[in-house]
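// run 5 | inverse folding | seed 20
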């Protein structure tokens, strides 16, 4: 049974950490799974060509902790053969799925025909899905947007993806043109789910588990299979837990310590110290002395020093 079937066979909603470039590395994914073991985690996107050409890159980004399972690696590109090669490499690292990025709106990405660019290059998009679906054992999924500049094509596009072999589609409720502006529109996703057999997962502006469960409901029934959270999970892995869970101060610090430990076990010390800063700033967002803390962290060069600052924080409340 693949990871998608393990949810659908039990009629369990799919709750997922969304892919975020610069954030969803092994350490953050493991931290989210440590706090919320029932979720699925998606990686930040990696270049299919990069994984194909550079085994050291593959080793660095695909090595992970089994706590992350089910783990889906997201890749971008636009050459079917590169996707296939990258997909096979991902499979060999023991991940549970491969997700294709068909939603990134960034100009330089779209200009190369990657990300959202694949929404308007359908033949190529379907070839990519098909070659992966035919040749991998793990399921192939797609993350896309409502459409290019409207959502008239969404159902047709989704049907083609399903026919090409996609096993799940995540839709961010904005168009490529909107990028991140305006509110996410979840309505068109319900029609998409009705038109497809495979699960549709909604994404966009979802703050936490309770918000997500409400958003996927339509007329008192579950209208989508699940939801993904991106921005609201930063510094807040508790957002995936039921009941609007609020961690105590001690829990917050303990999870920050664990995040640091995962970071250290997956990256070189100087890189770990540097990269943990942005995460720690998120964990402490809204607390009055976060600025002072950020200043302290900015000069830190060793894990021991970082851990010491955390120990200091522990005593604050
Ligand atoms: C910093 C950042 C990086 C992102 N990187 C990716 C990415 O690599 N792949 C992807 O499909 N979406 C990426 N996204 C989009 C998110 O997955 C998500 O679709 C979007 O943020 C809307 O969800 P939210 O309202 O829960 O944040 C990124 C978003 C942010 C804020």
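// decoded
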């Amino acid at each position: 049974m693949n990871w998608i079937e393990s949810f659908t066979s039990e009629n369990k909603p799919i709750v997922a950490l969304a892919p975020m470039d610069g954030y969803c590395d092994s350490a953050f994914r493991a931290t989210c799974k440590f706090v919320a073991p029932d979720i699925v985690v998606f990686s930040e996107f990696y270049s299919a060509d990069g994984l194909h050409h550079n085994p050291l890159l593959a080793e660095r980004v695909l090595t992970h902790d089994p706590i992350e399972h089910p783990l889906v690696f997201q890749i971008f590109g636009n050459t079917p053969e590169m996707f296939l090669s990258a997909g096979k490499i991902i499979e060999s690292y023991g991940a549970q799925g491969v997700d294709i990025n068909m939603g990134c709106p960034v100009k330089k990405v779209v200009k190369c025909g990657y990300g959202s660019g694949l929404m308007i290059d359908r033949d190529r998009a379907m070839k990519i899905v098909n070659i992966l679906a035919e040749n991998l054992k793990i399921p192939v999924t797609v993350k896309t947007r409502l459409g290019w500049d409207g959502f008239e094509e969404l159902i047709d596009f989704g049907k083609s993806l399903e026919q090409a072999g996609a096993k799940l589609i995540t839709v961010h409720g904005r168009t490529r043109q909107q990028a991140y502006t305006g509110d996410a529109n979840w309505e068109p996703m319900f029609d998409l789910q009705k038109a497809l057999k495979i699960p549709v997962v909604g994404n966009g502006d979802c703050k936490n588990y309770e918000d997500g469960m409400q958003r996927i409901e339509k007329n008192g029934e579950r209208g989508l299979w699940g939801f993904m959270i991106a921005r609201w999970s930063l510094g807040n892995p508790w957002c995936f837990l039921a009941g609007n869970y609020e961690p105590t101060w001690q829990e917050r610090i303990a999870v920050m310590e664990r995040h640091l430990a995962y970071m250290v076990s997956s990256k070189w010390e100087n890189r770990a110290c540097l990269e943990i800063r942005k995460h720690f700033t998120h964990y402490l967002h809204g607390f009055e002395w976060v600025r002072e803390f950020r200043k302290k962290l900015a000069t830190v060069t060793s894990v021991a020093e970082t851990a010491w600052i955390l120990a200091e924080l522990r005593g604050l409340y």
